[in-house]
Amino acid sequence: MTFDVTARQDITLDAYHRVAWRREPVRIAAPALARIAACRTSFLALLDHDPDVTIYGVTTGYGQNARTKLKPDERRAHALRPPFAAAASFGEAVPERVARGIVLARLANFVGGHAAVTPRLAQAVAAMLDGPPLPLVPWPGQGGAGEILSLSHLFSDLATTFEPGEKEVLSLINGSPSSAALVADAALAARRRIAIALPVFALAVEAIRAPLEHYAADLDDLWGDVHEAEALRGLRRLLAGASRDRRPYQAPVSYRILPRVLGQAYRAVARAEEAARISLASVSDNPVYLPPDPDHRFGRVYSTGGYHNSMATPALDDLAAVWADLCLLADRQLTKLLDGRYSLLPDQLVGAGSEAYIGCLAMATVGYTEQARAAASRTLLPGSESGGFGQNDVAPLTFLAWSKEREAGWCIEAALANLAVVASQALFVTQRVAPANLAEFLDDVRKIVPPLTRAVRPGLEVAPLADHFRRRVFEG
To answer: At what angle do helices 312-338 and 177-208 cross, to 10 degrees?
Structure first.
């Protein structure tokens, strides 16, 4: 299929999934092309009508040279300068799907005419999504004001394939499409990651035979939070028909607070999805062109800070924090399952003399938890002056926040795999079956890590399950 864009509001989280993850090509619809052409014409008319107009990067220099006014005959040469100098970062590149998402989000500025580019350039950007692999976009070193470092890597080659007019190169590398793509990518993955966490934790609940009153329907209203109610409903659904043979007293705290912490995760995902929804369709160009209206015959141009996305980084930080918290919960639940004093399970589950000793999975889970906690540090605006020169004195650090969320996400996948194997083993040792709504999930776990009856290297056994969880997150 081909994704058709008529207006920037078409660029949604679902559109990101189709274009970035499923690699659908993009076509700019005829009404949008007509709008782009009309705005380009009126923008050039504005330049002709007022030779003294000040428009950043068009009639002035860039950055610290913004105070330098360009003469009309200098503007053309200025417009032809490729943005090579801003491609200064290097290191590991973001995945191809994220680069595709950046290109898609870039079109939000174009389709309403706010970038004042030609239809030819808009179509050339869209065509990048129906061709060879995109240029590599490194995520380290993204410390400049706005996103010119990442966008220069992505669009420099395109800028050399035709003669750009006034403002066109600037419209390729200004704005905040990178932040939009990063938070959209994380939001999509996060929703799927929770869909894996829920049955893993439910399996642990069943393994320790926690009283089902911990997840009673009455709590939905008593707690009064929609996200915690969603977690409670999910756990009740998976535990429906569970054995009535439960432990005679309350389970450890990590099992009782499970719906609260899962609710926190659902809440963070909802915030990330909202940040993505707004950011993907946002006009973030600088300078931004406003099309003509009755009071402004040729339109207007504003210099703004739209290129600084203030929603994406906190949303990514919140996701990293919930992955770290869920890692801790997985660690505590796993440890309690392994200790018969708390789980009331037989010592043969992890007894040091057992042939299938898996107690060291608890040690590994501590490592993943601490790694996630380190990644979950808050991402603040940089304390040093961005770039160290001129007007560019504050940088967004969305790429850094994304990299930390990605690392914490990998850690929770590993911790969940460990917990799933221990819960599976607990049910195997006690010869119990999972509730009907968990049976298929348990079968999937055991296809990859069968119940253990002999001495093994636990890490080698569990790693394929963590990889399986990751594939489910990113491939579905």
So the answer is: 20
Q: CA geometry: angle at 254 spanning 253 and 258, to 5°?
A: 110
For residues 117-137, give the mean pLDDT.
96
Structural domain count of the chain: 2
Whether 337 and 265 map to the same domain: the answer is: yes
Domain of 226 in residue numbering reads as 187-274+310-474
Place of tokens 């296809």: 447
Query: Are 171 and 257 part of one and the same domain?
Result: no
d(CA 313, CA 183): 8
Sequence letter at residue 285:
D
Alpha helices in 209-311 (DSSP H): 218-223, 226-239, 253-256, 258-280
Closest listed residue to residue 459, CA positions, set 358, 381, 352: 358
Residue 180 β-bridge partners: none
The answer to whether residue 339 sits within a structural domain is: yes
Rounded Cα–Cα distance for residues 34 and 28 (Å): 10
Asked if 68 and 60 touch (Cβ cutoff 8 Å), the reply is yes
**At 62, is the pLDDT very low, low, confident or very high (cuts 50, 70, 90)?**
confident
Tens-place pLDDT, residues 11-56: 999 999 999 999 999 999 999 999 999 999 999 999 999 888 888 8
